[in-house]
Design brief:
By secondary structure, this protein is mostly helical. Helices cover 52% and strands 10% of the residues.
Length: 82
């Protein structure tokens, strides 16, 4: 975890969990969302440095979920003062 994560927290993408919960697979989601499967894999693995709002909208539409189901804010440790 880098300094920014320690000071400000981070976002966790719950795409892999949602895909499993909906009984889908990554390839099916990529096809339905008109996305490259590699991009879906990166979102599933939380390997994204900058979120794309349009991609998030596509994923929420395909998975029939809300943004708060897909993204979770993990706050910074309470030990670190800003």
């Amino acid at each position: 975890m880098d300094k920014l994560d320690k000071d400000y927290g981070h976002l966790e993408i719950r795409l892999a969990e949602l895909i499993k919960k909906k009984g889908l697979n990554r390839n099916r989601v990529a096809t339905k969302a008109a996305m490259n499967w590699k991009q879906v894999d990166k979102y599933c693995d939380n390997d994204i440095s900058r979120l794309d709002a349009f991609v998030l909208c596509k994923l929420c539409t395909v998975l029939e979920c809300n943004i708060h189901d897909l993204l979770v804010f993990i706050p910074a440790d309470k030990e670190h003062d800003i």
